[in-house]
Structures are given as C-alpha cells and as structure tokens.
Amino acid sequence: MRIDIVTIFPTFFDVLDISLLGKARQAGIITLGVHDLRDHTHDRHRTVDDTPYGGGAGMVMKPEPWGEALDGILDGADDPVLVFPSPAGEVFTQATARELAAESHLVFGCGRYEGIDQRVFDEYAGRARVRLVSIGDYVLNGGEVATMAMIEAIGRLIPGVVGNPESLVQESHEDGLLEYPSYTKPAQWRGHEVPPVLLSGNHGAIEAWRREQSVARTARVRPDLLP
Ligand code: 6GU
C-alpha cells in the first residue's frame, strides 16, 4: 500500500519510522510519502491560511497550496482514496479501517485551524474518492493526530504487518464486542488471583467465560454496541 500525507507539520510523522509500521515500511509492505503543504506556497511567508469569507473566528486553509500538492500526488496515481480528517466527517470505525486497508493508495490531507476551503473537497470529489473522516466526538487542533491513529488502525490490518494474524481477530471491536480481560503469570499478584477457569485447561469453559466477560463488559461500558 502507498500512503501519502499532506501536512504543515511533516516531522510529526517521523515516528512512522519505528514500531510495527516502521518494519512494514522496511519490508516494502507500506510506502510512505510525507509532503509539506508549505512547499506549495509561492509567497515569502509561505502562507497557507486566510480569514474566512463571511467573517467569524479563526483561519481557513487556502485552496491553492492544496490544489498544487494534491495534483502532484494524484498525477499518474491509480484510483486513490483521499481521506480528509475532520470533526465534521463520518466516524472512523474498525469497519472503516478494514475498508481502507483493502485499498492500494491512501492520501491523507491534514487540515489545521478551522478547516480547509470547501472547494478543495468539491474539486477532488469530482476526480477521486474523497472521504471526510472524524476519529470521535471531540475536537483536535488538526488532522495530524487523527491521521496517525487511522494509519495505525489501517496499517495493522494489511497482511504481513502484524506477525500473528490470529491476534487480530481476538481484539476489541473485531467481533463487535469489547475484549475480555487478559492475565499472565504469576497466578497470584498482590493478593489478586487469576480467574480459576483460565487455569483449568478446559478450552470450552475458557471460551464461554471469555465470551461472557466480553458481553458483560460491553453492556456495562458500551451498551450502544450491543444489538
Ligand atoms: Cl479527524 N480532526 C480534528 N481536527 N478534530 C477531530 C477529528 C479530526 N476527529 C475528532 N476530532
């Protein structure tokens, strides 16, 4: 998979050199391009924002640098998906991560301030698949942290990125439920015991216990996830 990121903070993505995603890049599973939006400005101050038409607080990102940056990335690209992190977008879920993990080229456009001029979305919606995506009901200063979260969620679903594919299916949200509690050695720690069923060797009973824990936890913490 190829991933391009357009941002005014390119060094923010230096951390993609390390960890699981870094290994996937070294292995050639993921190719990453990070692009500085300011490289596509042509004034002395490298201006990327301006005051909103109609008035109001904050600044809006100007369309021209976005146009130049995205044109360069889309030139010769094969049917990419443009993802614009935005609190005004559809909510990113595990299902979104699965959909995007099946793509061959993702382009993330990280907005700052009060957002990007609407005409950028309109322009590229006519030329590519465009998705505005929010990572939850709270406000971030810009799309960078949201992009990082999405890339981590998507990246680990790409075959070969996570060493043991089994570990993918047992996690929170993969089956629509929250994950059951996990324990490792020692069997006693500060007076807390491991639930005896996990030491029983009875795999049927263990599976039933885990399922019951998942359902109970989901009902308690996230009843909205239950049918
Ligand atoms: Cl994707 N961007 C911003 N700026 N804030 C958010 C968000 C995205 N998702 C939730 N809050």
TrEMBL record:
Keywords: Cytoplasm, Methyltransferase, S-adenosyl-L-methionine, Transferase, tRNA processing
UniProt record, GO biological process: tRNA N1-guanine methylation
Domain of life where this protein originates: Bacteria
Presence of keyword tRNA processing: yes
Residues annotated as binding S-adenosyl-L-methionine: 111, 135-140
InterPro entries referenced in this protein's UniProt entry, alphabetically: Alpha/beta_knot_MTases, tRNA_m1G_MeTrfase_C_sf, tRNA_m1G_MeTrfase_TrmD, tRNA_m1G_MTases_N, tRNA_MeTrfase_TRMD/TRM10
Enzyme class: transferase
Catalysed reactions, semicolon-separated: guanosine(37) in tRNA + S-adenosyl-L-methionine = N(1)-methylguanosine(37) in tRNA + S-adenosyl-L-homocysteine + H(+)
Entry annotated with the keyword Lipoprotein: no
Localization per Swiss-Prot or TrEMBL: Cytoplasm
GO cellular component terms attached to this protein's record: cytosol
GO function terms (MF aspect): tRNA (guanine(37)-N1)-methyltransferase activity
E.C. number(s) listed in UniProt: 2.1.1.228
Boundaries of every tRNA methyltransferase TRMD/TRM10-type domain copy: 1-226
Function per UniProt: Specifically methylates guanosine-37 in various tRNAs.
Sequence similarity: Belongs to the RNA methyltransferase TrmD family.
Subunit structure comment from the entry: Homodimer.
Protein name (record): tRNA (guanine-N(1)-)-methyltransferase
